[in-house]
Amino acid sequence: MKTNQKSAAIYGTAAILLALPAIAMRFSDQVKWSATDFIIAGILLFVTAFGIDTILRKVKVPGKRFLYIALTLILLFLIWAELAVGIFGTPFAGS
User: For site-directed labelling of 42, which of 17, 19, 68, 72 has its Cα 20 to 30 A away?
Assistant: First the structure.
């Protein structure tokens, strides 16, 4: 896969993930996101996509590439979980 195709796939995945709650809101009353929620989720997803895209472009060793991408995704999930339910109890904690 070419570099431009990889980048499009990475950013496209972020866009699809961001669109899922918007679609769910149309079919369920249990999903209630505000504009702020979409902005924060968009920032998180697209910064993560940018990081992964940069790692794929710059890191040539496959093992290191995997490790850096895994760490990037773990960081995304930890931040997301903190904002959603407050697993660490920071002032940014959700719920």
Answer: 68
d(CA 2, CA 6): 6
43-67 b/e (C-beta count within 10 Å ≥ 16 → b): ebbeebbebbbebbeeeeeeeeeee
Which domain range does residue 81 map to? 3-85
Q: Is residue 95 part of a domain?
A: no
Contact predicate 18/41, CB 8 Å: yes
pLDDT digits (tens, 9 = 90+) for 62-90: 999 999 999 999 999 999 999 988 888 88
Residue 86: left (phi > 0), alpha (psi -120 to 50), or beta?
A: left
Examine residue 92 and state whether it is found in any structural domain, yes or no.
no
Mean of pLDDT values over 19-47: 95
